[in-house]
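User: I'm curious whether this sequence folds into something compact or stays loose and floppy. Could you predict its structure so I can see for myself?
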Amino acid sequence: MIDSRTADDGLSIRRRRQCPECGRRFSTTETATLTVIKRSGVVEPFSREKVMSGVRKACQGRPVTDADLALLAQRVEESVRSSGIAQFDANEIGLAVLPHLRELDEVAYLRFASVYQAFKSLADFDAAIAELRAHPSPAPTSTPQES
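Assistant: Here's the prediction. I'll summarize afterward.
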């Protein structure tokens, strides 16, 4: 190997190599494959589309665009990849979504959290809302409506 660097996408490594026999140079690209273990036990590749689809349901009726969802899915993938682990439970992916969704839209965050944190009662919602109030998101999630 002659040279190694992270590719522009940040998700793969580009390596420059040289054949020891003929001396010719060539490049390789290496990408770590992320896999998700579903509740049923089925293993499948990580999919940004599936992250977007799941979050889209929580964002229904909220001022969230497809571009916002695509960026959220990208951030989730980056945070999962940065852990260095290649295989995750589906629930872990859902939990990885939460901090990014909270920044995007607090109402959608509560909807999504109620599933992935297994809210069982109104007290669970109250506790989550109290946490949101105690530690507000850095940017406002919506603009107040005028009456």
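Summary: The chain has a mean pLDDT of 85. The longest strand covers residues 12-18.
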